[in-house]
Amino acid sequence: MKKFLAVVLAISMVLVFFAVRPVSVSAAGFPDVPANYWAKKQIDYLVSKGVIKGFPNGKFEPEAKVTREQFAKMIVVAKGLKLYEPSTPTFTDVSKSRWSYGYVEAAAKAGYIKGYPSGKFGPADPITREQLAVLEIRVLGKEKEANDPNLIFATFSNDESQVDSWAKGAMTLAVRPHYQLLKWDDERNIRPRDPATRAECAYSIYMILKPPVDGGKVSIATSEEPKTLFAELDSSMTMFEVLGAVAEGAASTLPSGKLYPVEAEYIPSQEDGTWVVNKDGTMKTVWKLRKGIKWADGQPVTAQDYVFSWKMDLSDKVQVVSRDTQEKVAKVETPDDYTLVVYWKTPTIWAQYSPLGAGVYPAHILKPIFDKNPADINSCDYNTKPVYNGPYEVESWSPGNYIILKKNPDYWAGQGLIDTFIYRFTPDTNTMLMQLMAGKLDMTMPGIGIDIPQAEAARKNGLTKTFDIRYVSSVYWEHVTLNLTDQFLKDINLRKALMFALDRKEMVRKIFMGKRQIAYGPMPPGMAAFNKSLIGKYPYDPAKAKEILKNAGYTWDSSGNLINPDGKKVVINIEGPAGYAEREAEIEFMLKYWKDNLGISGSYVPKSWSKLIDDWYAGTFQGALFAWGSDPAEICEFTLYNSTQIPTKENGMAGQNFTRISDPELDKWTKICNDSVDPKVRMDASKKIQAIVYDKLPELYLNIHVSVWVIRKGLVGTEGYDLNAVTPSSWNAQYWYWEK
């Protein structure tokens, strides 16, 4: 898998659990509703309006269950309905003497509740989350829409099959952008049959009273411009940030790396038999696509689009980033337009991520180009004017200036709320900071926007009055990719000396204000696969560095310049993105340490992002400073270190082994890791890979990113992006809106 480069109420409502009488307590005083609690804003709002209250013990008890009659009272009071007490009860189990009689009858009269088929209401039963959805869709007057036979059922959850038939329409609408009545848990489950909690009820009532706002634009700054918007042909972080709102596939991942179904009805699993791993290592996966999904031009998305995309990737004339997973597919069957039965030659966990190891692209647009000449795919109009199937589509791209996205009118799962996203390319981050201070931007892209020192300076100058400055944990690791075919860098002794001669702790302190941590190989310390035994290797030790070089036959001339065993003066030039102040500072820091400690001359070579990528694939560089980022499931680093992944003309320039390292042990363990679905085998192999590369040093491992994300106050929907991983910050852009 390839690697990737964040009606104000006029009346109050009393929330009653009749075992304990509630009292008025400010939300800020609830010890069980901390500042980072997921529903704190909603609870605070309802408490401030007198809609809900806490308990005599000072707590809110957000996780306590809510009964059906309790919620009937909540919604009646929230909507300002008058109590209704007819002479004849509507439900056989809610008598006139019951405390909730007037509330239940008022809710029934308004058409909010209908009870069970038996004629009972079940007042003391916990209200389940799917019951909550059905009731609230009625409150919103959308029951007819929920029962539309053309509605595509989708909750984008891993437990979608547990939704009862009578609740499918309501649950579908409940998670759509314009309603947002329910949230998923950390495992991307919607939990339809679980009892709803006080916090969940407070959240959903808030969303009824203050529904998402439609309209407006979001202007986003990034220091890099993508080379293409054809996802299969590149791996830049900026490209995937833009495409996060534009492209969809069968499955997607949360920032945490957790998989969930999107255009597919489910994620194949061994438990339900849709993913079979045979004793001989072959596999079979069965995917079911949802019917009714369209491309942005209105054409249907079918299994044939997936099959074409796979065949396109297999052509060595198409310059895909990697075709490793695609090549593991033995054959595919499509018994109908919405079913893919895939047979695999070897095991791979990536069989769960997409039906054929590839993205999905419109065959009706690209197949005629491919059939005429596969190489034309690399330069066709799709690179700049793509047609995808997500909530937004590319309206225009002005090279060097901006990319504009607009709503996709044919999006199948509810149109997005923001009208327009504008991605502005601002290579100079100092200029970006000034634009923020002047109010010309709404956001900076996490990881490729302003840096930590700039953010802290902006904080002191009052930026936080109108913007939130967030530091987001990251799985991106900063490093210098070394070209091991270079006359100097091919020597492992020199590479080790470069590491010992570099004070990485001081780099983190001086450039990143201590907010990053040192990298010990290609794996962030926070990930489960991290090899802890590597901590402490390569401490700052200039004397050790010189000793290594002396023992390897290096000398110094009368001016203190390092001379290699071939008698050549050692010169190391490092490429980096032009205008990126933070990375420029890193390169200058390294060059100074190597000059002062080892007598190595070198220069910083600023280049555009597009030119940098060209150099990496062509191998026309010495060293290049950038960061790799992974899906948390990507622990094998196959595309980075396996020798088959060195881009060459023969393999269609596929692969991301830009260092050109070719090592039998790395080939062995990256293959074992990549070809296994056994978690233990993969974990053990990953730790061996980390140990080998940290010894061989095809890259100089510097630090782990902490991404800066600046967001204008009032933009709702970005709160859940707490890990800057391969999933872009725009992954849920259709849910963003400007709060009134």
Task: Note down, in words, how this protein is organized.
27% of the residues lie in helices and 15% in strands. Helix 1 (40-48) packs across helix 7, helix 9 packs parallel to helix 10 (363-372) and helix 19 packs antiparallel against helix 20. It is built from 20 helices and 22 strands. With 740 residues, it is α+β, with helices and mostly antiparallel strands. The strands form six sheets. Strands 12, 13, 16, 17, 18, 19 and 21 form a seven-stranded mixed sheet that branches.
Largest sheet: 7 strands, mixed
Based on CA atoms alone, the radius of gyration comes out at: 29 Å
Q: Based on Cα principal axes, name the global outline.
A: globular
Mean pLDDT: 93
Number of discrete helical segments: 20
The N- to C-terminal Cα distance equals 42 Å
Strand runs, count = 22
- Hey, roughly how much beta strand do the residues contain? 5-15%
Helix- and strand-based class? alpha+beta
pLDDT < 50 stretches: 4-28
Secondary-structure map with pairings?
Blueprint: H1 40-48, H2 68-78, H3 101-109, H4 129-139, H5 143-146, H6 168-174, H7 198-209, E1 217-222, H8 237-243, E2 251-253, E3 259-261, E4 275-277, E5 283-288, H9 303-314, E6 329-333, E7 339-344, H10 363-372, E8 392-398, E9 402-407, E10 420-425, H11 429-437, E11 443-444, H12 452-460, E12 467-482, H13 492-500, H14 504-512, E13 517-518, H15 542-551, E14 555-556, E15 562-563, E16 574-577, H16 581-598, E17 604-607, H17 609-618, E18 623-628, H18 638-641, H19 664-674, H20 679-696, E19 699-712, E20 715-716, E21 723-724, E22 737-738
Helix pairs in contact: 1-7, 2-3, 4-6, 9-10, 13-15, 19-20
